[in-house]
Write a structure and sequence with these properties.
alpha+beta, Porin, two-stranded antiparallel sheet, globular, disordered N terminus
Length: about 425
């Protein structure tokens, strides 16, 4: 009867106390079955030493079955191109994307590149966009000299932009848009030197010609909406000798894509007009950028500030189409291309990027900037800003495609870009 006495509480919980008292053997069987469920089987009751041995054996079995990661065909092709010199040195026929002018929309076209035995490079390409923008370019680079520290290059280029946006100058300009056309021809040469690892020096000179006018669109032409006093350079066709010098510290692994490094750079440009007109000026561009890798670069904080400032002599003007501007796919992305223009500009950008796959990143970004007519007004007051989210497809040192959504106080914008937003 001891079994019946000990099992009686369990029987009461089941509402069968009387049955338990009359048939104690059934309760004992139930107790045994319950104990079998609750208590671990004898085989699992292992000593700490035997348990550690079992785990070690399991890990060894898993390690024997591990296979090295196999890249897919897209990843293998990216690495082949990067190891062959990157997307800037493509051999044979290929397709070029973008590279006409901001506001062109999606553009592509044929291209051909040749690498000669002495290390020189020749690339010819053309592109046409969904908005009827056109570009033809022939570029060449001489073999590197001074143990690869100095490179020389040049190009001949023609581009036609039949429909570009023009808004009133200034930070508080209304959203009323006018259109204008711009054709540009260029013959230029440049040199870049890296005397030590992180120091980058550059210089160049070229001839540039601009032909501007009204655009054949449903919107107002820039000539109808603004006066020359409000928009300097309307219908101007200036010809320039454009020279520049630049100096910077750059510790990034690549200029087109990077997860770490510092960039501090300044460039001084001189546009000296060669034909009749009051449009000679100078422009100073600067950038400070810091990339902070987290968890071996799986997360990256990308912080930057960029500024542009123009200077003119007495009686001279900067044509509106060469003024510093904000808006578009690279700067202040929540606003349309060329949304803000003036004599001076500044923009702050913060990005948080995280690893999705080997050649795919996601990015959360914030831009804030302004344009001003006075250099002294380049401060933190009355900034235009936007937030956004993007998907990036890239190689080890090159950004191939950006798909981004950005929102400012003028609405939502979808962005397709074929280069990094900050270079």
């Amino acid at each position: 009867m001891k079994c019946g006495i000990y099992c009686c509480p369990l029987s009461i919980l089941k509402g069968k106390a009387s049955v338990a008292a009359s048939r104690p053997w059934r309760v004992c069987v139930g107790f045994v079955l319950l104990a079998c469920v609750i208590l671990p089987p004898p085989a699992l009751a292992q000593s700490p030493g035997s348990r550690a041995e079992a785990l070690a054996a399991e890990q060894e079995e898993k390690s024997r079955n591990l296979q090295p990661y196999k890249r897919n065909i897209f990843e293998r092709r990216l690495l082949e191109i990067e190891e062959a010199g990157g997307f800037a040195v493509v051999r044979g026929s290929f397709v070029t994307f973008g590279d006409i002018k901001q506001g062109s929309g999606v553009a592509l076209g044929p291209a051909y590149g040749k690498l000669f035995d002495n290390g020189s490079v020749l690339i010819a390409k053309g592109a046409y966009s969904v908005r009827n923008f056109k570009m033809v370019q022939l570029s060449a680079a001489a073999p590197p000299i001074a143990r690869g520290r100095v490179t020389l290059g040049g190009r001949v280029r023609w581009q036609d932009a039949p429909q570009l946006a023009a808004y009133a100058l200034g930070q508080e300009s209304p959203r009323t848009r006018a259109d204008f056309s711009e054709a540009r021809s260029e013959l230029s040469a440049q040199v870049e030197a890296r005397p030590i690892k992180f120091l980058r020096l550059g210089a160049g000179a070229g001839y540039e010609r601009y032909d501007t006018g009204g655009a054949q669109t449903n919107r107002s032409s820039v000539e109808d909406l603004f006066t020359p006093a409000e928009m300097p350079g309307i219908a101007a066709d200036p010809e320039y000798v454009h020279t520049f010098v630049s100096a910077g510290i750059d510790s990034r692994p690549g200029t087109g894509y990077s997860r770490s490094g510092t960039l501090l750079q300044a460039s001084l440009h001189d546009y000296r007009q060669q034909n009749t007109g009051p449009y000679s000026f100078q422009r100073l561009d600067g950038i400070a950028r810091q990339l902070i890798p987290i968890l071996h670069g799986n997360w990256v904080l990308d912080l930057s500030v960029r500024t542009s400032s123009t200077t003119v002599d007495a009686g001279q003007e900067v044509p509106f189409f060469l003024l510093p501007d904000l808006g578009g796919s690279g700067e202040l992305r929540g606003y349309s291309a060329y949304r803000f223009r003036d004599r001076h500009s500044i923009i702050f950008t913060g990005e948080y990027r995280w690893y999705v796959q080997e050649f795919v990143d996601m990015a959360l970004f914030y831009d804030a900037g302004k344009v001003t007519s006075r250099r002294g007004d380049l401060d933190f007051n009355r900034l235009k800003s936007n937030v956004g989210l993007g998907l990036r497809f890239h190689g080890p040192q090159t950004t191939l495609l950006r798909i981004e959504v950005a929102r400012g106080d003028e609405g939502l914008r979808l962005i397709f870009g074929f280069s990094a937003p900050i270079r």
